[in-house]
TrEMBL record:
Residues 221-415 form the Ras-GAP domain. This is RAS p21 protein activator 3. GO terms for biological process: blood vessel lumenization; intracellular signal transduction; negative regulation of Ras protein signal transduction; nucleate erythrocyte differentiation; thrombocyte differentiation. It comes from Xiphophorus couchianus (Monterrey platyfish). Keywords: Acetylation, GTPase activation, Metal-binding, Phosphoprotein, Repeat, Zinc, Zinc-finger. Residues 467-568 form the PH domain. GO terms for molecular function: GTPase activator activity; zinc ion binding. InterPro entries: C2_dom, C2_domain_sf, PH-like_dom_sf, PH_domain, Ras_GTPase, RASA3_PH, RasGAP_CS, RasGAP_dom. The keyword Nucleotide-binding does not apply. Residues 15-154 form the C2 domain. CDD domains: C2B_RasA3, PH_GAP1_mammal-like, RasGAP_RASA3.
């Protein structure tokens, strides 16, 4: 984290690319018998040259520099390429003093310091301003050594004194926080011991003795551990059991339900990171349209009387803000069907653990979930949309202020706090919140939280209380195994919970038919041609389809979305379906006569149920190894703490108090396995680096010579030289 002085920039100072050169010193005897020495300079090729104004027509200019020498020769122009192949050779005379009688071809020491080769790359421009400088390199002839031959790649460098003379202090400074990470990733089998330890973390009892939890304990910042852990567990499909285990342990350590997940624990950081990865598309479809509108409309929404401009009206601003809050609140609370499955399963686990731990508090099942989905997901995305890829840039100050006020209100609405006015330090915010002090807002939040904390796993249904998700009157076509003949259409009261889909003669009566959610194989629209009726959809079961007509197209879409959401984890979901009904002995869509014929159209899938992450599991394991290596001293100290706890029952020593150790023996056992796995990987890295250093050739295409590496090259050349007397 450092302040950097800003430097002047010119076209001559911004360069990129590399050039391949070959230099050879040869002896030539002239007709008069005089021995001269010529330098043959071969410009072979360049790679990665910059494209200037949409074109790159490069050529090279080669000069021999010395006290009295300055010859310049040019290659042919290579059109429309930034990776030109030149393959041209130029000759320069290097005349020796008359006293020179040595048979070797190496240049005498007094001449070496005076001679250098300069190669500049230019873009041949048709503009009147002349050709553009692309970069250059200066090669002192002392690189020829005894052999008289030099073949190497060079990074192109800025032209010397290319920029204008500007006082540095006039340009100011810029503070940068730079983190550089370099991971050398081995083949997968090298990581098996450490990876297995990590992936078993959810099954370790207690979870505080697991490898993943220990990583969170020794890292300076929980975020350091959370990022690679979440990506690794997501990659291997183990994120839900892991987060469930560490969340359950944290909830059991919490004494007051009002402080649940308040700290920056490993649990909260892992859930944050999971939402950021799994929920990015969810944010895009939910918030982006309304955020874009707010950023382009520039409506005034300032409600602080102190900050109000003379031309603005307080009531108008309040109404503008209220409308924005209402719209964002509605898009959030009606978006439950789009919430990714992995997030829903995590929220289900949080809700169940919190409700079991604090049975007296009826709201804790909601606050445990809202503390993440509202406080750590939606509210920050509204506040800083650029950080969540909802906007390309940070909003202007006025829009940013509007988003801040919206974010505060949404956060409070989602918190379900008992005393709303107490949540605001500012009196104007408390007054504004009176607009939303109605039961319908709390009910909408609870319904939304109920839906997104519904588990998609059927082994959880036995312990989960049924949650009513949607109900209302619709028209259904009478079911029956016999599909032939005319069937009646009847109005029925439909009711959907996270356990079953039922219909009743009227509201409040017993169910005439119940379809378990696990029996729903697909939910799709039904073509109007089937029954000459609009707004129809079908709920496909193993043996038959239930045809339903909604009251309007919006209702039909809502029912399809929510039914798809609750059934999207069913193991036997169909991949194809029939978009039309089976009537008069055949399917109207594909004309097949068998009523059991497989579908003729791919299922729409309804919603993006989950995410496909481009994660390299080995790289994430390598990252975790690097973290363990960085904090090895803390691992050893944690071992000491386990030993201390095992033999001493008195007050905990202060130096060990930062570690969470529930079972010293189990934790010590895991620590021993971690240290062993890390040390094995460390030995492999040491061997790799040693072998790589031996094979590294400075001046090769992979390691071109640059401004800083020239001395390394000279040192490497001298180490490889054998002298003989």
């Amino acid at each position: 984290d450092t302040w950097f002085q800003l430097q002047p920039v010119s076209a001559d100072s911004e360069v990129q690319g590399k050039v391949h050169l070959e230099l050879r010193l040869s002896e030539v005897i002239t007709d008069s018998g005089v021995v001269n020495h010529k330098l043959a300079t071969r410009v072979l090729e360049c790679q990665g040259l910059p494209i200037v104004n949409g074109q790159c027509d490069p050529y090279a200019a080669v000069s021999l520099l010395g006290p009295s020498r300055s010859e310049a020769k040019k290659t042919k122009v290579k059109r429309k390429t930034n990776n030109p192949q030149f393959e041209e050779t130029f000759y320069f005379e290097v005349t020796r003093p008359l006293s020179y009688t040595k048979r070797q071809f190496d240049v005498e020491e007094e001449d070496v310091d005076k001679l250098a080769l300069r190669v500049d790359l230019w873009n041949a421009s048709n503009l009147k301003f002349g050709d553009e400088f692309l970069g250059g390199v200066r090669v002192p002839l002392r690189v020829l050594g005894q052999a008289g031959v030099h073949d190497a790649w060079y990074f192109l460098l800025p032209r010397e004194n290319g920029g204008k003379s500007v006082k540095v202090e006039d340009l100011g400074s810029l503070r940068l926080n730079i983190v550089y990470t370099e991971d050398h990733v081995f083949p997968s089998e090298h990581y098996t011991p450490l990876r297995d330890l990590l992936l078993q973390s959810a099954n370790v009892e207690p979870v505080s003795a697991s490898t993943a939890h220990i990583l969170g304990e020794v890292c300076r910042e929980k975020q350091e551990a959370a990022i690679p852990l979440v990506r690794l567990f997501l990659h291997y499909g183990k994120i839900v059991p892991f987060i469930s285990a560490i969340a359950h342990a944290e909830i059991n350590r919490t004494q007051n339900p009002n402080t649940i997940f308040r700290g920056n624990s490993l649990t909260s950081k892992c859930i944050d990171e999971t939402m950021k990865l799994a929920g990015m598309h969810y944010l895009q479809v939910t918030l982006k349209p309304i955020i874009d509108e707010i950023c382009t409309e520039h409506k005034s929404c300032e409600i602080d009387p102190v900050k109000l401009k003379e031309s603005e009206n307080l009531e108008t601003n309040r109404e503008n803000l209220r409308q924005y809050v209402d719209r964002i609140f509605n898009v959030i609370t009606t978006s439950g069907v789009r919430c990714p499955t992995v997030m829903c399963d995590i929220f289900f686990s949080l809700r169940e653990s919190a409700a079991t731990r604090f049975q007296v508090d009826q709201d804790v099942r909601y606050t445990a979930v809202s503390s993440f989905i509202f406080l750590r997901f939606f509210a920050p995305a509204i506040l800083s949309p650029n950080l969540f890829h909802l906007r390309p840039h940070h909003p202007d100050p006025a829009t940013s202020r509007t988003l801040t006020l919206i974010s505060k209100t949404i956060q409070t609405l989602g918190s379900l706090a008992k005393s709303k006015s107490a949540n605001f330090k500012e009196s104007y915010m408390a007054a504004f919140y009176d607009y939303f002090n109605e039961q319908k807002y709390a009910d909408a939040v609870k319904n939304f939280l109920d839906l997104i904390s519904t588990s998609g796993k059927w082994d959880q249904k036995s312990i989960e209380t049924p949650i009513m998700l949607k109900e209302g009157f619709m028209i259904k076509r009478a079911q029956g195994r016999n599909r032939f003949g005319i069937k009646n259409f009847k109005k029925r009261w439909f009711r959907l919970t996270n356990h079953e889909f039922t219909y009743h003669k009227t509201k409040g009566e017993g169910a005439l038919c119940s379809i378990p959610i696990e029996n729903i194989l697909a939910v799709e629209r039904l073509e109007e041609e089937s029954f000459k009726m609009k707004n129809m959809f079908q709920v496909i079961q193993p043996e038959r389809a239930l045809y339903i007509q909604a009251n309007n197209c919006v209702e039909a879409r809502d029912w399809i979305d929510i039914l798809t959401k609750v059934s999207q984890c069913n193991r036997k979901r169909l991949s194809t379906y029939h978009p039309s009904a089976y009537l008069n002995g055949h399917w109207l869509c594909c004309k097949l006569s068998a009523d059991t014929a497989p579908g003729c159209t791919p299922c729409t899938g309804g919603l993006p149920a989950n995410i496909q992450l481009d994660v390299d599991g080995d790289r994430e394991t390598e990252r975790i190894y690097s973290l363990f290596g960085t904090y090895m001293t803390k691992l050893i100290k944690m071992q000491e703490a386990c030993g201390s706890k095992s033999v001493y029952d008195g007050p905990e020593q202060e130096e060990y108090s930062t570690f969470v150790i529930d079972d010293p023996q189990e934790t010590y056992k895991t620590l021993k396995q971690i240290i062993s796995a890390v040390q094995t990987l460390e030995q492999q890295h040491t061997k790799y680096k040693r072998d790589k250093f031996k094979k590294t050739k400075i001046g090769s295409q992979e390691h071109p010579i640059g401004d800083k590496s020239f001395q390394c090259y000279i040192r490497q050349q001298s180490e490889n030289t054998t002298y003989s007397i």
